[in-house]
Here is the input.
Amino acid sequence: MRATDSLLDTALSRRQFLRAGMSGAAFLALSTALPAAARAALAAQPARRLALANLHTGESCALTYWEHGAYIPGALTTIRHVLRDHRNNEEHAIDPALLDLLGVLHARLETNAPYEVISGYRSPASNAAMHEHSAGVASHSLHMQGKAIDIRVAGRALGSVHNTALVMGLGGVGYYPSSDFVHVDTGRVRQWQGA
Here is the structure.
């Protein structure tokens, strides 16, 4: 086993720990997989906020999704709705680690602008249809598990969003300059460029 495989396994087990509902403080104390700067950014926040604007539905939210050491169920429900598959209105739980990744990215970008969401959750039916028409859509996309999102941020160059996400090293990062979005996910650390 390579050293990077061990680190990836550690990162995944930490994400699973987080998803199990353990407190953010415990996650930060135990997670050696997160870079020090990411741990510091999360630990410094007594509450974690996100602002999302779904470009397909026109819906948006700006809310606190984590506070007092726990995720807020009502906020997670709102985020789940805003990030639903706009093609068929199917909803799916969104990975809390993805929300934290977005929180760290937002802090690193030093902006108050909401994330412009191109794609959040994608149902298996939608993903299959998209995969059939585009080689750029993975047949087993993490979008179908609520672990991926395609975004851009007003006032920040797409290249800057991409490079910042890469430096964080918290999951997969896809760069789609022609389509004007960056893909981030909570899967293994990897990178690619699409159209």
Notes: The first helix runs from residue 3 to 19. The helical segments are 3-19, 24-30, 36-43, 73-82, 96-109, 124-133, 158-168. The chain has seven helices and eight strands. Residues 127 and 133 are 10 Å apart (CA to CA).
